[in-house]
Specification:
CATH architecture of the largest domain: 3-Layer(bba) Sandwich
Low-confidence stretches: none
Number of domains: 2
Largest sheet: 6 strands, antiparallel, barrel
Radius of gyration: 25 Å
Strand order of the largest sheet: 13-16-15-14-17-18
Helix content: 25-40%
CATH class of the largest domain: Alpha Beta
Strand content: 25-35%
Length: 408
């Protein structure tokens, strides 16, 4: 019986340990935190968006970086596989809007408890509060790991599933990147992803706390459209956040001119500019004797009205029946093209995942084994893989973890 060490007790690490144990190996799971799955506890606002129940092909469409690398991993252990695994381990699941999958209880702790039951059943040895300092390698072959106390722990294979740099409070340190680099691997630049944007405009801060639903967001890199989506967003004290914005941030790293990145918001996507103009004209006719500042409550949320008045350039006290056709058309255009300039993203403390990581060209996509060191495997966020929100990043972790463990 060969011995396998899995470094990191998150989603990818637990699946790697389960899969390796299923193959009959003696498995030791090393986790530096006081418990397993610390990041899983906070995913999906504490509810754990386990995966997405879409067609398998659609999983790949939602992967932003290196989707082709994941073919073997996802086809080998897909969304239905993780759902079956958890439900059979006593964690019933439900499918919500956008085909997002959650535990019926809405408690992420139930997902972790189910995985721990499987680990126990498979006789995986779990060691908490155990830090790995570096990999123990001789002649391009893995021999084990060197622990934080300097002690060597021998193994026939090692899986690195240490996660990325997002949410440092969960113990994310980037140790996996460092260990990989020390043995010759290339690490692509790491950036926060699925992260809120900071904006130049002061009026965004005036709207702090305002949530907008059913809006359209387009992100431009100069004149080039790099993202377009429909959904929900939120104004904050530093700029913008919410599901739409987090998805847009996945493409920010690909923008060549960061100083020219703009977000254009369509507040009324269901109406063409022509139809919106007719709607505004109708509203104005009903309120023709009111001042402009008192005529927009049917069009925008109350908090947004003062900002739209200021940006329109129309005098707030002006009587509605005195507003010119050009001014009205300008207001309509503003409503369909509310523009913000991005000054940057928030940091890793607020990022859901890490963009960048271990270069996938140096990893065998059929096994997750290093092409540089025999017996060394990688899984999860430590790899240069990232996806949109909706359960897709956890699916990457489950799939790559399972493939790594089952390939040993």
């Amino acid at each position: 019986m060969s011995k396998v060490i899995v470094v990191g007790g998150g989603a990818a690490g637990m699946l790697a340990a389960i899969a390796a144990a299923e193959k009959g190996h003696k498995v030791v799971l090393l986790e530096q935190n006081e418990k397993l799955g610390k990041k899983i506890y906070i995913t999906g606002k504490g509810r754990c968006n386990v995966t997405n129940a879409c067609e398998v092909e659609k999983l790949f469409e939602n992967v932003i970086t290196n989707p082709k690398f994941l073919y073997s991993a996802i086809y080998g252990f897909d969304n239905s596989a993780i759902m079956t695994l958890l439900e059979e381990a006593g964690c019933p699941l439900k499918i919500e809007r956008g085909e997002r999958v959650f535990p019926i209880s809405d408690h992420s702790s139930d997902v972790i408890a189910a995985l721990q039951r499987i680990l126990k059943k498979k006789q995986v040895e779990i060691r908490l509060h155990t830090k790995v300092k570096k990999l123990w390698i001789e002649e391009k072959h893995i021999c084990g790991v060197v622990l934080g106390n300097g002690q060597k722990e021998a193994a026939d294979a090692v899986v690195i599933a240490t996660g990325g740099l997002s949410y440092p409070t969960t113990g994310a340190t980037g140790d996996g990147y460092r260990m990989a680099q020390e043995v010759g691997h290339t690490v692509k630049e790491c950036q926060p992803s699925l992260v809120p944007f900071e904006t130049v405009e002061g009026w965004c801060r005036e709207l702090q706390g305002l949530s907008l639903k059913n809006v359209d967001l387009t992100m431009y890199d100069g004149k080039k459209v790099v993202y377009q989506g429909f959904g929900e967003m939120l104004f904050t004290h530093f700029g913008v956040s919410g599901p739409l914005v987090l998805s847009a941030s996945s493409f920010y790293g690909k923008c060549k001119k960061k100083e020219d990145v703009t977000l254009v918001l369509d507040l009324k996507p269901a109406l063409s500019e022509e139809h919106l103009d007719k709607r505004v004209l109708r509203d104005f006719e009903e309120a023709q004797n009111k001042q402009f500042k008192n005529a927009l409550n049917g069009l925008f949320p109350a908090k947004l009205v003062p900002v739209m008045i200021k940006l329109s350039g129309i005098e707030p006290e002006k009587k509605v029946n005195e507003i010119t056709k050009e001014e009205r058309k300008s207001l309509v255009h503003l409503t369909k093209h509310l523009t913000m300039q991005v000054s940057g993203t928030r940091d890793f403390n607020e990022a859901i995942i890490t963009r960048g990581g271990i270069h996938v060209k140096e990893v065998n996509p059929s096994t997750m084994e290093s092409k540089l060191v025999e017996g060394l495997y990688f899984a999860g966020e430590v790899l240069d893989l990232d996806a949109l929100t909706g359960g897709f990043n956890l699916q990457i972790a489950w799939s790559t973890g399972y493939l790594a463990g089952s390939s040993i």
